[in-house]
Amino acid sequence: MKASLRVSRSAPIGAVDPRLFGSFIEHLGHAVYGGIYEPGHSSADDMGFRGDVMALVRELNVPIVRYPGGNFVSGYRWEDGIGPAAQRPRRLDLAWQSIEPNEIGIDEFQEWARRAGAEVMMAVNLGTRGVEAAQDLVEYCNFPGGTKWSDQRRENGRAAPYGIRYWCLGNEMDGPWQIGHKTAEEYARLAAETGKVMKWVDPEIELIACGSSNSGMPTFGEWERCVLRHCYDVVDYLSLHSYYGNRSGDGGEYLACCRDMDQFIRNVSAICDEVQRERKSEKTMYLSFDEWNVWFHSNDQDKQQEKWTVAPPLLEDVYNLEDALVVGCLLITLLHHADRVKMACLAQLVNVIAPIMTETGGRAWAQTIFFPFCHASRFGRGVSLQAEIDCPGYEAGQYGDTAYLESAVTWEEAARTLTVFAVNRAEKDTMALELSAEGFPALTKTEHIVLRSDDRYAANTAAQPERVRPETLPLTDETVLPPLSWNVIRYSY
Ligand code: AHR
Asked: 169 CA distance to ligand 1 centroid (A)?
């Protein structure tokens, strides 16, 4: 099969914000306890953080990490997680029907993030709590000193304020599963008032309001309109969440699911613009796609999980090659919307629907989805260019006619490089890809990295942690994408 890709220096989409490659750690399953934190592990540092996990997180180059939830945050009392560890209470976590020991709290997580080279994106509880708890939390984290909560932080050994910049106003508040679920009107008023007060404590912070939990919610659209009408002036981003899975067993359809993400972003952007016009506002509302991933493999297993234990194994999806290609297509879709989506978080980071898995007392390894994320996060920098594709297609179930090629191109002027990210969705056919790049001097291909396998269900596990790994292809004049593959082709000029 032949495919062509056309880009032009004069047709940019927008600058890629590095925060597009954020991730997420929730107090859920083995994400924190037995994930990033395992004091008895041979690689643990002075605070009990696993060094092997830290090394993989650093390899992913994650600039922001959302914390502490997720559904968990809607019942969280942040004060439980500060001060002497021995005095911290154990609590019922109703979101995940587990016991939360509070060994890790804001101070420890802030330090973990610092060591991982990431900024914390903090979420406040708008499920069971409201204005006052959020105000106190901003004061604890960001106020220099001389007040109750800032002095408390100093007493806890953290003299300098954290300066946490990004704050989520609750989590998925439109979902009936949420602790303290709200109607759009109830949430919108609470978010507007909480956000206003948080900014009074620290005017430098940026706020993210909850959009719908996914585009299939019955209130989708009306929820966004109502929230924006109340919060437009106080918030800086609206959130989107979406999870995908091969539930029907139709691999061709599954590989096209990024078209849903694309449409979701277009629809939410249109609503933001509608409210902007209505309010005659100068401000563009940006989007924070702060939960996205594949999530379906562990659904049945999780229903069997014993309740009320500390850190039960939950949401431990084992990802295969097909899932990695979907994640690649979703990353490409985010790059296509670089002008609007300024932040995004792969949900999540360790053990819980995650690129990184661990064994208690044992090894840590990279799942298949680790690799497209790592490549996009390392090379998807600079400017995202409009890419015109000419390629045969196929019928992809609910998504209709879909090209075999999915691709995004980024351009870094300082490094004089172009990077092509490309997924070949064809099961059997190779794809000869021709790139034309208008307005650039002659290009020299410098690298072609590929992730592929003869088995679309091949996965990395504790027993076979390196079964699916990227390889570097020898450089040839022609660029050929293997069947069912994720590709990164780099050029210099
Ligand atoms: O990421 C797992 C869960 O998915 C989060 O806690 C919640 O926000 C979403 O429904």
From this structure: 15
Beta strands in 91-246 (DSSP E): 91-93, 98-100, 119-124, 166-169, 206-209, 237-244
- Specify the pLDDT at position 134: 98
Supply the DSSP symbol for 87.
Answer: G
Catalytic: 119? no
Closest Cα partner for 168 from 220, 210, 109?
210
What are the C-alpha distances in Å from 11 to residues 14, 16, 284, 386? 9, 14, 21, 6
Which of 26, 65, 73, 177 should be mutated for ligand 1, with most atoms under 8 A from CB?
26
Distances in Å between the Cα of 253 and the Cα atoms of 125, 394, 403, 425 are: 37, 10, 12, 10
Q: Would you give the distance in Å from CA 397 to the centre of its chain? A: 27
- Please answer whether residues 451 and 321 qualify as being in contact, where contact means their C-beta atoms are separated by less than 8 angstroms: yes
Half-sphere exposure (Cβ direction) of 251: Cα atoms closer than 13 Å: 16
Structure tokens at 403: 């090209």
What pLDDT, in 10s, does the model give residues 108-127? Answer: 999 999 999 999 999 999 99
Which helix (H) or strand (E) covers residue 138, if one does?
A: helix 131-142
Closest C-alpha among 76, 77, 64 to residue 120: 64
Which residues face 167 on adjacent strands?
122, 207
Average pLDDT over all residues of the chain: 98
Model confidence pLDDT, tens digit, residues 351-363: 999 999 999 999 9
In angstroms, the Cα distances linking 92 to 33, 65, 73, 97 are 16, 24, 13, 7
Location of structure tokens 């990210």? 421
Backbone angles phi, psi at 474, to 5 degrees: -60, 145
Residue 291: active-site member: yes
Name the residue with the closest Cα to ligand 1, atom 7: 70
